[in-house]
Specification:
By secondary structure, this protein is α/β, with parallel strands linked by helices. Helices cover 52% and strands 12% of the residues.
Length: 256
Amino acid sequence: MASLSEIREEYLRTPLKGREAFLTRYREDKRTGVQSLLKKIEKDIAAEKKETERTHGMYAYEREYASLGLLCGIDEVGRGPLAGPVCAGAVVLPPEKELLYLNDSKKLTEKKREELYDVITKEALAYATAFVSPARIDEINILQATYEAMTQAVQTLCNYLGQAPGALLIDAVRVPQLSQYRQISIVKGDAKSASIAAASIVAKVERDRLMEDYDRVYPGYGFASNKGYGAAEHIAALKRLGPLPIHRKTFIKSLL
């Protein structure tokens, strides 16, 4: 008779399609520990099935526009902060595989974003990020800086991929500098398109990591936690310690 730990290990090795048969095989085992484990497994299977269905819905645009060729999801992170750059991500996901748990990066925990970042960067056919500095944001405004970051990210991705994508799936905007590509603008796209969600996650993780680095360079502003946004701690430090080179002058002038 298999031990509880052996049954658990067997379950972890069992592919999704074989889990119902696994449950059937052990339902007659009346040991309390086994029955408790089976109940947990049943909940896990139900949750994974629900997530699979949700994820399939996130690929609706990818299926709709599949005939156009490779699709590149684009999104930005960091339009609103008082400090730090704006970052854009561009991702081409594998068309034959649906990656579970993709969602708007803001709806995910930091731990989940980090996990998905590793999955995306491993599974994607290509991905790229681009940063536009606070000084450049002050020079051309945040909207134009966002377009610039998106354009740079797409150019880097195309150079890596060796070809242009068939279309760009973009969260809510159309980018004038990318007019040579077919652009499909999707309102709240990071919650509706897997490709845009992946771009959102990659951009968010890389920008957050940069702001954590800045926290070590510029202690006292709380960048590791606030990521440059206008949290009370950040604004108080700004007034107490003064602005830094990474602050956006056009964003903080009313606070000083």
